[in-house]
Specification:
about 400 residues; alpha+beta; Jelly Rolls; 8-stranded mixed beta sheet; dioxygenase activity; metal-binding; iron; IPNS-like_FE2OG_OXY
């Protein structure tokens, strides 16, 4: 008990400087500015879910005799699966793999492969990305330990539709919606005004410290990827980053927990969707497959490399590139034998900047496809209706 208390004190002190920095920034703001932030964060959503929340992990551990109808997908949405590999062979990897050391050293062939991946797949894996494997493992292990805590410890961080920050079990506020077979934890890294360590779990004892370092490393990686994505569009390296708000970007994390599912052929861990933000840097479970990517008319089950990240293009980059780059539908399947944990890091535009096709990519023969819209306005769709394929970004294509 004394050791645990010492660890908590140490973690608190190690983050104290960052907390003070955030407090100073808040204290220097006017009441009007604080109210603006509060209004932006609310997005018109309430503090309560429309129905009582049921934790999927609790359902999975309750030895169900019948499968709950609220998780049964319509026949057209059900995954066509019979068995799922738990330890995929390297030869089965089927989305492009990009070596970032080669890419950032100026290898033109690697740049071409990345461009093709963004245009044709919307997904790619990155190796030699610079994030320490030990840090990645510590982050994933910490979250596995969190989800194995008693339910009472996790409920202390229960979230609401207002910001989604905290421990959750559903996306969207539609009453009576068919739900996904997953729980999650959502937290903010940037802007610093939204980064609140009190909303991060305190157990296991080092999780805040580990995730703080993890977040900083992925923000760096996101910036490096944005530069090469911009260059490959024929733009200045900093163009996409500037369109996101320069250094004033958004960054957040959703840790996905997919419990064992007694009827995996009827359910999904996460319904088909394209990510509403900028780019997503996913740290998947390399021992239990689950991510499926739509490629043409086929759902491809991705087999991840150990300590690689899976990167995908989000709707905001598709809009900025005037559909030169594609955000692609993806979903998550579940299985009856293994649980999965994955960490999805979202690198997003500043929430109040209008996002529209970049002028350099608009011509008389390639007019702008999308009207301007802020990310705050855009992501309200998925926060109210939940994941619904590509319907949101497609619905905003201009009629002209």
């Amino acid at each position: 008990m004394e050791a645990e208390t010492t660890d908590k004190t140490k973690n608190k002190n190690s983050l104290n400087d960052q907390e003070q920095e955030k407090e100073v920034k808040v204290d220097n703001m006017s009441d009007q500015d604080k109210n603006k932030i509060e209004t932006k964060n609310t997005n018109g959503l309430g503090y309560k879910w429309p129905e009582p929340i049921v934790r999927v992990q609790s359902l999975a551990e309750s030895k169900l005799t019948t499968f709950p109808y609220r998780y049964i997908k319509p026949p057209s949405q059900r995954p066509q699966i019979t068995t799922i590999n738990h330890k995929p062979e390297a030869a089965a990897i089927n989305i492009p793999i990009i070596d970032l050391v080669s890419l950032f050293s100026g290898n033109e062939y690697e740049k071409k492969r990345l461009s093709e991946a963004c245009c044709e797949w919307g997904f790619f894996q990155v190796i030699n990305h610079g994030v320490r494997p030990e840090l990645m493992d510590a982050a994933k292990e910490g979250w596995k330990n969190f989800f194995n805590l008693p339910i009472e410890a996790k409920e202390a961080y229960s979230n609401s539709p207002k910001t989604y920050e905290g421990y959750g079990s559903r996306l969207g506020v539609e009453k009576g919606a068919i739900l996904d077979w997953s729980d999650y934890y959502f937290l903010h890294f940037l802007p610093l005004l939204l980064k609140d360590f009190n909303k991060w779990p305190s157990l296991p004892s080092n999780i805040r410290e580990v995730m703080d370092e993890y977040g900083k490393e992925l923000v760096k990686l996101g910036g490096r990827l944005m530069r090469v994505l911009s260059s490959n569009l024929g733009l200045k390296e900093e163009q996409l980053q500037e369109s996101f708000g320069g250094e004033d970007v958004g960054a957040c994390l959703r840790v996905n927990y997919y419990p064992k599912c007694p009827r995996p052929e009827l359910a999904l861990g996460l319904s088909s969707h394209s990510d509403p933000g900028g780019i997503t840097i996913l740290f998947p479970d390399d021992q239990v497959v689950g991510l499926q990517v739509r490629h043409g008319d086929t759902w491809i089950t991705v087999n991840p490399l150990r300590h690689a990240f899976i990167v995908n293009i989000g709707d905001q980059v598709q809009i900025l590139s005037n559909s030169g780059y594609k955000s692609v539908e993806h979903r998550v399947i579940v299985n009856s034998e293994k649980e999965r944990v994955s960490l999805a890091f979202f690198y997003n535009p500043k929430s109040d900047i209008p996002i529209q096709p970049l002028q350099q990519l608009v011509t008389s023969t390639n007019p702008p496809l999308y009207p301007p819209m802020t990310f705050d306005q855009y992501r309200l769709f998925i926060r109210t209706q939940g994941p619904r394929g590509k319907s949101h970004v497609d619905s905003h294509i201009s009629s002209r």
